[in-house]
Structure formats: C-alpha cells, structure tokens
Request: fold
Amino acid sequence: MLKTKVAIVGMGTVGTGVARLLLDHGDRTARHAGRTLWLEQVVVRDPTKPRDVDLPKGILTTDLQKVTEDQEIALAAMLVGGLEPARTMTLQLLESGKDIVTANKALLAEHGPELFDRARELGRSIAFEASVAGGIPIIAALSQCLTANQVLSLRGILNGTSNFIITKMEEQRMPYAAALAEAQRLGYAEADPSMDVDGSDAAQKLAILAHLAFGTRASWRDIPREGIQSIEEADLYYALELGYRIKLLAVAQLWPEGIELHVSPTLIKVGSPLAEVRESYNAVSVVGDAVGNLFFHGRGAGQMPTASAVVADMIDTAVGRTKITFQSLKLWSQDSSGAPLRDHSRVRSRYYLRFTVADEPGVLAQLCGALGRQGISIASVIQHEPRETGNGVQVPVVIMTHQTSEGAVVKAVAEIDRLSTVRSKSVRYRVADERSEIQL
Ligand code: NAP
Ligand code: HSE
Reply:
C-alpha cells in the first residue's frame, strides 16, 4: 500500500477530529485515497496539554521545522486559527513544498490573495472546504459541481455559534451569555468569539462564497454586516407572533447593477427551509440559472463535521485532485474579475421595526409620518398593552413594512430615534422575501 506522510498543525477542536479520523479510520481513508495517510507529525503550542486522542509516541511537537524540514511530508492540515502566526506558518509550509488543507476562513478572507499567489508560484495547492459551513461540501459544489450555471443568488446561515445561540434563546429561553458559553464548551465558537456573534465570521465566509459564485473579489470588511449581540428575546417572540424566526442570514444576490452582499439578523417565514435550521447547523440555499434551487444543510461547526471536510480535502490533495481544481480556480488571482458590489443603500427588502415609545397621544402618528416621508408603506402593526418601567409608561410598537430601500429605512429610523417620545434605540431587521427563493 502506498503511503503519503501528512502533518497536522494545530490540534484543538478540529485537529483532534482530524487525528481521530486518520488514526481510528485509516482503513477508510486508505480505501478512498488508494494509499495510507500516515500521520507523521502534530504541531501544537503547548505540549503538556491533555489531548482527547491517543497519538503515536514521539509525533507531538512545538517545532514547525520538524514538518518543514521533513521532505517526506507531502501535505499539512493547517488548523491554527486567527491571522498570526497562522499566516507565517502557512507560508513556511508552502515554501518547504507542502500542500495545504485549511479550515481557517479568517486567514483566507484576509490573506487569501497573498497565500494563493504564493501557492501558485510554488506549484502547490490550498484546499479549504472546511473553511465555510463546516461539514457541508459547499466549496466543492460551487467550484466544481455547479460550474455550468450562472449562480443567481446564494443565501446562507453560515455561523454555527450564532445559530446555536439564537435557537437556545428562542426555544429554551436561555440567556444570551449562557448560550454563548455552551457554544464555546461544545467547541463551536472561535477562540475569540466576538467575530462569531458580530457577523464578521459569516461575512468572511460570504466573501469566499461570493468570490467562487460570482468572481467578485470583495473584502469581507466591505460587506455590510450586523451580528446577533443585540437581539432581544422580545424580538424573537414578536417575530414568532408574526410567523417568522430571526436568523443570522448571509446574502449574495446578482442584480443587473451588481452584487448585493450583506450579513444581518433577518426574519424568515416559519416553515421555510432556512427558518428551520437549528442549533449549530448551517444551510446554504443556492439558485443557479440551469439547476434551479438547491438547498444544502448540515453541521456548520464542531469537531467531527469539520474534520470530515478537512480529511476529504487531505484525500483529494494526496491523490492529486486538488491540484487540478486549484489550478483552474481563479480564486484571488490577479485576473479574477467579477461584478461590482451593489450600492447598499439601494438594496430593497421588507423590514421589521420595533420602537419603544411613550404612551402618549399622537406618537403612532409620528412614527407613521416619519415612515411615510421616506415613502415607506406599512404592512402591519402590533401594539400590546403599555408596561410601567422605571422610565415611565412605555409601549413597544412593532411595524412590518412593505418593500423599501435600506437607505429609506435608515433615514426614517434616524428621524424617529430623535423624537422626544422615543425611549430607546429602535430595532430594525430585514425580512427575507419568500419570492427570492425561486428566481427562474
Ligand atoms: P482551537 O480549538 O483553538 O485549536 C487551535 C490549535 O492551534 C490548538 O491546538 C493550539 O495549540 C494550536 N496553536 C495555536 N497557536 C499555535 C502556534 N503558535 N503553534 C502551534 N500550534 C498553535 O481551534 P479550532 O476550533 O480547532 O479551530 C481551528 C481552525 O478551524 C480555526 O481557523 C477555525 O476558524 C476553523 N474552524 C473551526 C471549526 C469549529 O467548529 N471549531 C469549524 C470550522 C472551521 P494548543 O492546543 O497547544 O493550545
Ligand atoms: N466558529 C465557527 C462557527 C466555526 O460557529 O460557525 C465554523 O466555521
């Protein structure tokens, strides 16, 4: 049996899962790769830490050179998170002739052009299926299986931690902080979870998907994004009352004037596939002009689902499949060109608005007036009985609008927030348009 020597760099949540698959299911990988993927070295930061996998003696090291200087190691699974030292280590591995498999979307979204250019110059490859949506094979789908299509739209729940937190808040009334702590304990969250909950992680993944789907080389920093940190239990319940669930939705949509890209908490109709994605699951709904609607659903975070994607990439790299796709992939190359980004203020949607106002005559008219001045039409209003707070009697007013532009809503809400009758900052979430599920 042929043997390809491999290394794991970083053995936390994901690296441990990869080691388990290689060591406990070597027969499986050998069957699919036609060779043994032999785990030769594992690089970590702290060699004294207890590990959840029995490693063969002598392969755990803190010295990356044990990998870079071993000419027999063909590929490395780079599973250190964050930007540095992950970037430098990846470059060192490429320079020493290793092909790379990575799950680090932050690294790709920030340094993709540099790393991909260097890999191309050196005749090496970078595989990154695990970097977006964990175990869901969405990178392979977009870069290989759907290439006969013009992708028209892509909408996804791309952060498992956020989806887990929202699910726990909605279904079990778990407080936000407790749900986040549970997501961390289960290994879903990043080492610094702020990028999970502020929409940055989903924007990084969306930038990668949009690049594959539309050729658009957008920096994730330019993608308008909002996270789940300020979602209140009240909004989850008002949304349910209206027949919707709130999800952190990433959207990439092709329009004649450019690509619409954003990440934001969005109301999605109960019963539609995206609304029913629970816990750490992710989903991506893709519309292609030939294939029509596709829906991908699976675990987007966690040890074994992510390891599943990493090991599949290791097998593809070992047998030479990755090299072929990597060379034809124009990802982050100088000659990649795609549609420009659409002016965000012109993006149209329905909106959910919640205002907390004084219980006084004329207040509802003030809200309606401000919306009307921006040409915003109201679809429905919920106003429950007022409640006494330390700050006087306050009334929550929830308004669902008809389709309008982001720019108009921003102006109207800013005007409303300046009213003396408004008691706290207003809440504004998009409502997903069910019609955009089918574009053909
Ligand atoms: P993690 O649990 O924090 O593990 C990171 C690993 O990197 C640890 O083993 C750590 O070593 C090692 N490391 C850090 N700095 C190092 C250094 N200077 N030299 C050598 N090793 C170093 O992270 P993770 O959750 O496995 O995530 C790894 C990557 O996969 C991240 O980019 C993440 O975004 C991505 N990802 C994660 C998931 C998930 O569900 N967790 C899913 C998809 C993608 P020690 O163990 O010695 O501290
Ligand atoms: N922290 C990420 C998430 C891991 O929660 O989705 C998967 O990329």
Q: What stands out?
A: The chain has a mean pLDDT of 94. The CA atoms of residues 250 and 263 lie 4 Å apart.
